[in-house]
Amino acid sequence: MQEQIITNTLSFSVLGLPVHLLDDYPGWLIAQLHQQVGGQVITLNAEMTMQAEKNATLAQIIKQADLVIPDGSGVVLYLWLKGKKVKRCPGIELAETLLLYAGQLSKPMPVFFFGGAPGVAAKAAEMWQERCPKLAIAGTQNGYLSAEEEKQLHQTLKEQQPSLIFVGLGVPRQELWIAKHRHLCPKAIWIGVGGSLDIWAGTKTRAPAWFRENHLEWLYRLYQEPWRWRRMLALPLFAWKALLSNFSRK
């Protein structure tokens, strides 16, 4: 069944990496969940695309992912230059849609939160439990684990078999971790959510709507975390490569 669904999913290349073009990403994943077909979701943005150019393992994981969504404004603008009028699908909004859906079901669809500093994942789960009292929380775990704690996490996931697993370890660590461990819960949807756990926990805030609507969320993130400036250098490089690719096509 998974092979049939993936075949019907149109993809388009962004600097050699696939982006799946769908009208309804949450609906696609909800169908996967009901059919108990697991998979890895990649939330592609310009920074990750540039990292993949230097990290062959990350590039291969993206190419093999079950769903790659246009998370970043840069990716959306690249697709627009290529004539593909797509809307941005922020990973945090996709995750929240799935959580709200899971919280309305009469039959539990358990979720697991992994990542962040000690206490962050637990606080994020607590916030969602208050927002959706019927949401089934399979467990939480922070992202700073000893070898023994990592082993225990593997065992917990194998026993609990959550339906949705949100991993906030940052790029590319979360993508590599999911690819390595998704066999523990083969029927689950695994999504790397970056700093979403911190936003849900209240330790960080998301960019205001004006920044998001004007493709400036990266600027707000830089304001919050100035140490990211070196990583942000990937954005103009991505833009330059996008323009070169468009000119070469013409």
Automatic annotation (TrEMBL):
InterPro entries in UniProt: WecG_TagA_CpsF (IPR004629)
Keywords per UniProt: Glycosyltransferase, Transferase
Organism for this UniProt entry: Floridaenema aerugineum BLCC-F46
NCBIfam families, sorted: wecG_tagA_cpsF (TIGR00696)
Xref: CDD domains: Glyco_transf_WecG_TagA (cd06533)
Name of this protein: WecB/TagA/CpsF family glycosyltransferase
Pfam families membership: Glyco_tran_WecG (PF03808)
